[in-house]
Design a protein that fits this description.
The chain is mainly α. The chain has one domain (2-161). It is 67% helix and 5% strand. It is built from 11 helices and 3 strands, in the order ααβαααααββαααα. The protein has helices at 2-13, 16-34, 43-50, 53-58, 67-73, 75-78, 81-101, 119-124, 131-148, 153-160, 164-167; strands at residues 38-39, 105-107, 112-115. A 3-stranded antiparallel sheet has the order 1-3-2. A hairpin with a 4-residue loop joins β2 and β3 (112-115). The radius of gyration is 15 Å and the shape is globular. It starts with a helix and ends with a helix. InterPro entries: ABC-3C_MC3. This is DUF6521 family protein. It comes from Sphingomonas telluris.
Length: 169
């Protein structure tokens, strides 16, 4: 029975609408810090950070902890991060599509994402009935802010061991 519920939870978390909501929340955080849009490629990092419970539980509690020292401290989590990016990229792609079509985010001409003000997403936070869902949405917002302070996309992807040419040939 526990396996059945674990499977249902996995399906729920990988729902493209929910994945899109995590990306929209990360986009909000990124824009709050930078005033510019979330680089499109960063959208593929959100699910591996927040949907993987072990990684999510090890995320720092404040922006004072920078990405590079964090990756050094939690090398065992980072070792499998590129694999999670590859495995979750189809869900991220569908999430981006649904977030843009559903009015949570928009893609700009320079391939960056901007969150659209959406009261329904904010109302959902705190009323989902699931502390895990609420935690994932909060962590998504944090990850957006954290990536904004982490340096260039090249630095971020290198630190995480992600090479897009490995996943998108």
């Amino acid at each position: 029975m526990a396996d059945q519920w674990a499977g249902r939870e996995r399906i729920r978390l990988l729902n493209p609408a929910f994945t899109g909501a995590t990306i929209a929340r990360a986009t909000e955080g990124y824009v709050e810090v930078t005033g510019s849009g979330l680089p499109f490629a960063y959208a593929y990092l959100i699910a591996p950070f927040v949907l993987h419970s072990e990684t999510r539980s090890k995320l720092p509690g404040s922006l004072a902890t920078r990405l590079l020292p964090w990756t050094e401290k939690f090398g065992e989590v980072i070792a499998t991060f590129p694999q999670r990016v590859a495995e979750l990229s189809p869900y991220s792609s569908k999430g981006i599509l649904l977030a843009t079509l559903g009015g949570l985010a928009e893609l700009s001409g320079d391939a960056s994402l901007f969150a659209k003000p959406n009261a329904s997403l904010k109302r959902y936070t705190g009323q989902s009935g699931s502390t895990e869902v609420e935690n994932i949405l909060k962590k998504s917002h944090f990850v957006g802010k954290w990536l904004a302070a982490a340096g260039t996309p090249a630095t971020v992807f290198t630190a995480l061991g992600v090479r897009f040419e490995d996943h998108y040939k």
